[in-house]
Amino acid sequence: MIKKIEHIGIAVKNLNNSNDLFKKLFGKDHYKVEAVASEGVSTSFFMIGETKIELLEATNENSAIAKFIEKKGEGIHHIAYEVDNLDEEMLRLKKEGFELINTTPKDGADNKRICFLHPKTTNGVLVELCEEKK
Ligand code: ZN
Predict the structure, then answer these.
(1) Measured in angstroms, how far is the CA atom of residue 10 from the centroid of ligand 1?
(2) In terms of DSSP H, where are the helices of 1-134?
């Protein structure tokens, strides 16, 4: 079951500059910075009510974030939904005809197991499913 919007991912060119910018916007600081080496990104998280804002900066030119910024510029990159059972949801959505980018769950930032749905099957929005690691 999809429970709520867990976070919104925003692609940025420079994480330090964007941390300053979003700190001014929100009136509070991020609560963590985390590198996800396997994805080639550095991330920073702000908590806004029950939803997080995840800033993503590419750490190498092959990273999906580097390619996204090259094509579209900075901006909203994905919406992440929290699910209670990632494996079940992946099976269910596959049956419904959605294309999974990774067919097995992988490790994401902030202690999550994650899976991405291809934007071509979700009206152009990159969807992340995430489950808190137990
Ligand atoms: Zn994310």
Answers:
(1) 9
(2) 15-26, 64-72, 86-95
